[in-house]
């Protein structure tokens, strides 16, 4: 059924179709509608889930951990400072191997108090061991939520789904909402092998000596490394059932591109429009949009970037203060030793919800085509200097 | 692709109007993107909403800077702000007013279209006399002049969205659809 | 009659022997935390006003209510003394365990 819905509601419908059994969340702008709709669904029984009201995001995640450990499919959503407040428990979910699925609306960190989009909130949680998906459309938000349950539960790794504040969260688009039976065929019920149970009581997360901790982290890493292959595989399975591809990295006119943008989130869709415009103006541009960022899809990035002899412009809507854009650093490190002498430049744009429009891509293209490598400094796009 | 900007005041249902239009347009198989001004809404303050319509998927996620058309839901905004900011030359301005299209000589670079949405809302007892709710009437005029959707699709969307005085709202949209007055380019 | 159960020693030689989660390998039925205790709470029923505060405060859920009076479950009570501290009429004494 096609319906015009906002990005936030795409998360709610995804959790509903995924048959989440426990929802514990605390409202925060611009995430509020996700939880509003889920609470309505729980109230009118269109979602058979326990809705747990909590007093903070820290408690929300704590409730999710308990529920997930008890064997329930668990969903929550937050944004920005809410995500930051969860930080400690994000580690707990990941190392505790609890496949909680969470939507995070990408919103800038304060101060100045901002409700607008950038990716610093989720990228500050990059190293917690959560999978990170970055979405570019409401349809992708819904599809990714369903897929995230499947991948997370298969690997016992939690998953975080990112939407740009307002640009996606509050934007209405046409979304094809799949039928419940088809989603059920794709996503079986959650049946964890290990769980909290009164019949066989175990202690979880207790004191773990140096003799044992290291191996647990090794196993965690080995499992999360399986995620790119599983995302690709379940993405193909999803396409067969629903006709929509779910890729690790979406390539657009990248094969013959002389200038390759690398983007994530909604910026990656505007980049497609920029690629078309630039090609009309005689610049052979292309775009790669990260859909999965954690675990990092090394092999897929190398495959898509391919040959040397092209220029790469990484557009970051985030900033690691004192260093550079985060996608820029990671893309460079992933290509090191694999593609010889490729000029890679980093562009920081759109912090705090500043728009990233066609003209900005033109500015990036003009710079990237003439800049001399190696370039370590940040190229700022759209800042009033 | 058609890009439209809506000007209203907080509480008038301007954002809801853009959502109803998006629904109606999608019903007929077209692609649509509707979004409010990003930020905090306050009752009475000027608000802006945007609509993109195309017959193929819409990838542009940047703001609309140069709309093809502008819809002025709240007539007092004509004096308060420059509603033509970025409007493409020859673009249309649809104004909710009981004045004539020729009463807006300041918009001579554009085509002015008028509809008395406030009058229609009052007649159908939508909202109160002091604060009539004009958004559904406006949608009727919008689909007509920009040929975005057929009236029955719009009326279905209104029925799905508006829970109070539903049929009065449906009627208001139909009346606006009939009564919208086209001016000529050049403010004549 | 001693019912002391000897648990098989679990050897974790390589990571393959580990569960994926940081968790106890045996069932917690055998984990009788009362053995950690140095001092034990003893409730004077004569003085007890049946307020339920000790039952509420016990962090190990080792106090239950029987015939409307609190009773300590010494299998799990670790002897922390919170019940004695919180008791408003001081009817709980902490007594040295005899070794």
Relevant terms:
heterotrimer; A: 385 residues; alpha/beta; Rossmann fold; 2 domains; seven-stranded mixed β-sheet; six-stranded mixed β-sheet; 14 helices; 15 strands; C: 99 residues; alpha+beta; Alpha-Beta Plaits; two-stranded antiparallel sheet; two-stranded antiparallel ribbon; 2 helices; elongated
Task: Sum this structure up briefly.
By secondary structure, chain A is an alpha/beta fold. Chain A is 41% helix and 19% strand. Chain A is built from 14 helices and 15 strands.
Topology pattern of chain B, helix = H, strand = E: EHEEEHEEHHHHE
Distance between the termini of chain A: 48 Å
Read across the widest sheet of chain A, the strand sequence of neighbours is 3-2-4-5-7-6-12
Shape of chain B, please? globular
Sheet/helix structural class of chain B? alpha/beta
The percentage of residues in β strands of chain B lies in: 15-25%
Number of helices of chain A: 14
Following the backbone from N to C, one meets helices and strands of chain A in this order, namely EHEHEHEHHEHEHEEHHHEEHEEHEHEHE
CATH structural architecture of chain B? 3-Layer(aba) Sandwich
The overall pLDDT of chain A, averaged over residues, is: 96
Give the tally of structural domains of chain B: 1
Helix content estimate of chain A? 40-55%
Which strand-content bin applies to the residues of chain A? Answer: 15-25%
Helicity of chain B, as a percent range:
25-40%
Number of strands of chain A: 15
Instruction: Give the CATH level 1 class of the largest domain in chain A.
Output: Alpha Beta
Please identify which CATH superfamily of chain B we are dealing with: Pyruvate-ferredoxin oxidoreductase, PFOR, domain III
Q: How far from one another are the termini of chain B?
A: 27 Å
Average pLDDT, all residues of chain B: 92
């Amino acid at each position: 059924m096609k319906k015009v819905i906002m990005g936030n509601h795409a998360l709610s419908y995804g959790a509903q179709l995924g048959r989440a059994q426990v929802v514990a969340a605390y409202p925060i702008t611009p995430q509020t509608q996700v939880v509003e709709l889920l609470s309505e669904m729980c109230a009118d029984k269109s979602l058979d889930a326990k809705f747990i009201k909590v007093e903070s995001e820290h408690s929300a995640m704590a409730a999710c951990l308990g529920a997930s450990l008890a064997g329930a499919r668990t969903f929550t959503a937050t944004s920005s400072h809410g995500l930051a407040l969860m930080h400690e428990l994000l580690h707990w979910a990941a190392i505790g191997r609890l496949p909680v699925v969470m939507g995070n609306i990408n919103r800038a960190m304060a101060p100045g108090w901002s409700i607008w989009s950038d990716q610093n909130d989720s990228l500050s949680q990059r190293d917690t061991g959560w999978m990170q998906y970055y979405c570019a459309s409401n349809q992708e938000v819904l599809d990714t939520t369903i897929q995230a349950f499947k991948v997370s539960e298969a690997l016992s790794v939690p998953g975080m789904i990112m939407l740009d504040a307002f640009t996606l969260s509050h934007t209405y688009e046409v979304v094809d909402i799949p039928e419940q039976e088809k989603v059920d065929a794709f996503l079986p019920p959650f049946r964890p092998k290990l769980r909290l149970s009164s019949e066989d009581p175990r202690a979880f997360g207790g004191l773990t000596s140096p003799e044992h901790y290291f191996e647990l982290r090794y196993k965690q890493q080995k499992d999360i490394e399986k995620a790119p292959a599983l995302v690709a595989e379940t993405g193909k399975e999803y396409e067969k059932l629903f006709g929509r591809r779910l890729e690790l990295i979406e390539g657009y006119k990248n094969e013959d591109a002389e200038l390759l943008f690398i983007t994530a989130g909604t910026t990656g869709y505007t980049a497609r429009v920029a690629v078309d415009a630039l090609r009309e103006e005689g610049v052979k541009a292309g775009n790669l949009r990260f859909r999965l960022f954690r675990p990092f899809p090394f092999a897929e990035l190398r495959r898509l970037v391919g040959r040397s002899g092209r220029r790469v412009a990484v557009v970051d809507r985030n900033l690691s203060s004192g260093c550079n854009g985060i996608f820029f650093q990671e893309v460079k490190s992933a290509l090191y030793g694999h593609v010889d002498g490729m000029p890679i430049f980093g562009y920081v744009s759109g912090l705090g919800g500043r728009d990233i429009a066609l003209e900005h891509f033109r500015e990036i293209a003009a710079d990237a085509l003439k800049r001399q490598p190696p370039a370590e400094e940040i190229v700022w796009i759209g800042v009033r200097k | 692709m058609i890009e439209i900007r809506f000007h209203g005041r907080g509480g008038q249902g301007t954002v809801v109007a853009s959502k109803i239009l998006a629904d109606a347009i999608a019903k007929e198989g077209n692609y649509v993107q509707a979004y409010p001004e990003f930020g905090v809404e306050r009752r009475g303050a000027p608000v802006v909403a945007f609509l993109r319509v195309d017959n193929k998927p819409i990838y542009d996620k940047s703001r609309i800077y140069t709309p093809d058309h502008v819809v002025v839901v709240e007539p007092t905004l004509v004096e308060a702000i420059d509603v033509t900011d970025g409007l493409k030359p020859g673009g249309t301005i649809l104004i909710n007013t009981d004045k004539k299209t020729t009463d807006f000589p300041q918009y001579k670079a554009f085509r002015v279209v008028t509809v008395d949405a406030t009058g229609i809302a009052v007649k159908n007892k939508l909202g109160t006399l002091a604060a009539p709710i004009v958004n559904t009437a406006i949608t009727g005029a919008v689909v007509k002049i920009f040929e975005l959707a057929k009236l029955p699709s719009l009326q279905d969307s209104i029925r799905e969205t508006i829970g109070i005085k539903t049929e009065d709202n449906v009627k208001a949209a139909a009346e606006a659809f009939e009564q919208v007055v086209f001016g000529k380019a050049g403010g004549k | 009659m001693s019912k002391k159960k000897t648990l098989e020693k679990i050897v974790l030689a390589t990571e393959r022997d580990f569960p994926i989660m940081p968790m106890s390998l045996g069932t917690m039925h055998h984990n009788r935390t009362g053995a950690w205790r140095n001092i034990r709470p003893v409730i004077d029923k004569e003085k007890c006003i049946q307020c339920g505060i000790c039952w509420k405060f016990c962090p190990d859920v080792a106090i239950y209510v029987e015939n409307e009076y609190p009773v300590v479950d010494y299998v799990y009570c670790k002897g922390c003394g919170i019940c004695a501290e919180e008791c408003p009429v001081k009817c709980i004494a902490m007594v040295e365990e005899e070794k």
